[in-house]
From TrEMBL:
The gene is tig. The keyword Lipid biosynthesis does not apply. Residues 455-483 are annotated as: Disordered. The keyword Methyltransferase does not apply. One of its GO terms (cellular component) is cytoplasm. This is Trigger factor. The lineage of its organism: Bacteria, Bacillati, Mycoplasmatota, Mollicutes, Mycoplasmataceae. Involved in protein export. Acts as a chaperone by maintaining the newly synthesized protein in an open conformation. Functions as a peptidyl-prolyl cis-trans isomerase.
Amino acid sequence: MANRSFDKVNSEIKVEIQVPSESWAEAQKKAFNKLATNLKIKGMRQSKLTEAKKKVASKMISSQSIWQEALSQKFLQVYLQEALKEIKDTDQVIDHPTFDVSKISDSELTISFSFPTYPEMKKFEYKKLGVKFGSIKPTQKDIDEEIKTIVKRHSKLVESNEKAEKGDDMTFDFTGFIDGKEFEGGAAEDHSLIIGGGTFIPGFEDQLVGLKKGDKSEVKVTFPKDYYVDEYKAKDAVFKIVVKAVKKREKTELTKEFIEKLGIENVSTVEQLTKYVKEKLDVELIERSKAEFKTAIIKAIDEKSEIVYPRVLVLKEMKKINEKFEETLKQQGITRPEYLEFTKMDEEKLAEQIKAEATKSLTEQMIMIEVSRLEKINAEEKDYESFYIRLASQYGMPLKSVKDALPKAQMQVSIVNEMIINKLIELNDEKAFAEISKIEAKRLEEDKAKLLASEKATAEKEINNSSKADKQPAAKKETKTKK
């Protein structure tokens, strides 16, 4: 007998199966006989089950052990098939079912199968949320700054006795104090960083500006509220600094010789470098703005909607995050107990963090899936072709090689996700979407032309090589003179 119900909170179809008493009795009998046969009893053969052995075994084997053995995969499969009869074609089941034992005793058994379904989003808002797209085209200032960065990156670092500025490399010793006491992990010698790189606690690097070799100073900061070590969150700290060395970039002129040394294809003049940087920033700026838009729009949709998370998906995501976490600890040579001790956490608190991370990850997934469903977004042949052309042009590879290396099935999720973000841009910032579409369409045509020219050049080279080989005189055969 099957009883179907729907759990709205967890978005699951539950099917309860009341197992016939005779079937349950037979399963328990087989389970007991198997356990009793394998039981080691002094004076009795292990592989043979006699009435005497049964009598002794009945006093040694608990009901719980019999039930556990009886609930074998084969036994459960029979009643899973019964439960599947209650699932309709219209039910949007999204994963394998799980099972729980609702009621169990020597005389009765009720099994509950839970089928996770796609959640019903009663409130889901994703249009005209006031989220605007960021910068699309780089300014002349952006281009000039990028060229300066390229020059700096390829200039030599030399030691200096002058005061440190942003962009300089500094080597220093430091010791950190909280409430006047040194704290674990807060000290190091000969630490090196690029000032302004943002690798330290906010505010730390700004206070290094103006220091020079041999200086001793104190840096005062406040740990972020979301710092990964609970004990240090929002705490004020003082770091005692001893500057060991300051290195500055040599001033380098933007000459033809310098530009050629950069090794950028078809770039040897300032004009060509400027054009190259602009095109590079065109791509990077739109991609960066898309990433920022995605973060903002997901947050806005989440705030305006009521997202339902299937329990099974949350558990699976938690398992995935936990496995990744364990792998990270292993790579760092840290055990789980050591990590908990260092972060002043227990397993319960860690589980809460993992669940929060899993929910956050699922929020994005559920929103992307729902937008895709409502807007009927599917990748077509032209979408795959555009994606492959873009990659081939970007990495300077033949189009066929890219297609062979990245099958459609492997790229489908990435392509569809990009299409979803583009649709969300269109639905929330039409003006920006129109401008982006023009830029990307133009870039696609340029990439096609670039690939065509490359393939033509390769074909001509092969023909020339073949012609040269055909024109080479055949080697003369040596003839032996008869004596």
